[in-house]
Design a protein that fits this description.
Layout lengths: L1 H20 L5 E8 L4 E6 L9 E7 L3 E10 L4 E3 L4 E3 L8 E2 L7 E10 L7 E7 L1
Length: about 130
């Protein structure tokens, strides 16, 4: 009985740790609110967040169009993802592979706009693994 309770507690702790880290190891790097006009924004990530090979974009609260995205790595090398996509509310991308080995991401710059004229704002969130 004690052993099964101990195993249950360990299992719950592992599940909680996985939930805190995100589904399938995705870590949230940051997010920005989007209004109805075109906009440019930056997500500062920093060197202490980890080393990543893939990113993913998720959209909440309103449909959003992203017209460009530039990832700056810890060594100041930049990669322009030549990204242009219209996202439905609640949608996101599949994994976007970053060139090279796993490395730190310093910041992510992107241009975007909300494509809905309703009240409120949409939200862009970036995850990495």
């Amino acid at each position: 009985m004690r052993r099964s309770i101990g195993l249950a507690i360990i299992t719950l702790c592992l599940l909680a740790a996985g939930y805190a880290r995100g589904a399938a190891g995705w870590e949230r790097l940051g997010g920005r609110d989007v209004d109805f006009k075109g906009d440019h924004d930056r997500i500062e990530v920093g060197r202490s967040e980890g080393r990543f090979k893939q990113i993913q974009i998720r959209v909440k609260d309103a449909p959003i169009e992203i017209t460009n995205m530039v990832v700056t790595f810890g060594n100041d090398e930049k990669v322009n993802l030549n990204f242009r996509h219209r996202f439905a509310e609640g949608s996101g991308t599949r994994s976007i592979d970053l060139p090279g080995d796993r490395r730190t991401i310093k910041r992510i710059d992107f241009n975007y706009r909300s494509i809905s004229r309703r009240e409120g704002k949409g939200r862009v969130e970036v995850y990495a693994r």
